[in-house]
Amino acid sequence: MAGVKRLACYRAVSGDAVHHVFFATMRFLGPRSISSLLKTALDVVYYGLFSLVVGVFIAAVCLLSVPNLAHEVVRRLNIAGTIGAGEQAMMLIAFGLSLCGYLLITHWTRHVFQTLAEGDAFHPDNTRRLRWIGFGLAGLEIFGYLTRFVAEGVFHLRFEPIYGLRAVTAWFSVLVVFVLAEVFKEGARLRREADLTI
After folding, report:
1. 137 is in which domain, residue-wise?
2. Maximum mean pLDDT: which of 7-16, 17-26, 102-111, 156-165
3. What three-state secondary structure class fits 94?
4. Gap between the Cα atoms of 60 and 93, Å rounded
5. DSSP three-state, residue 120
6. Structure pTM?
7. DSSP annotation of 25
């Protein structure tokens, strides 16, 4: 019985030691940390989105300027009905605008992670950036509803309805970002008070 207790204690201590070593070796803030790695990943995503936005708008221009291109697109995609060059260009422009929204959100998120990678988590500008991220996410959701309404009403396209978990998750994410903005605002305020006290 005593041996079993010693073994259980040994396992508990070993587990705590592994947990401590894991978080001691893994840095979440500052240079060469998880935040720095995520900042690099966001840079790649940002420039990839930028290239995609440019490509989408070039494709929209080509649809309007190249004869018979719109008909070839409909034929290759095997779309029932006829969608003209103007309609296809409008859909591409709407898609490009939504990508621009994601591009702006990625831009603000990059700046937030830049401050985290520098070890300055409660930078005063992070509150503003997080709020803009929240407004951007909300704007993208509303823009998505409007484009679906126009596509179904004008172009007679059909999409899967948005409701249930998908809609709740999207708006829950918006609320979480605004809550994080207030948390960063409070952290920045406490840091200012600490600096004044010193």
Report:
1. 29-197
2. 102-111
3. helix
4. 7
5. coil
6. 0.76
7. H
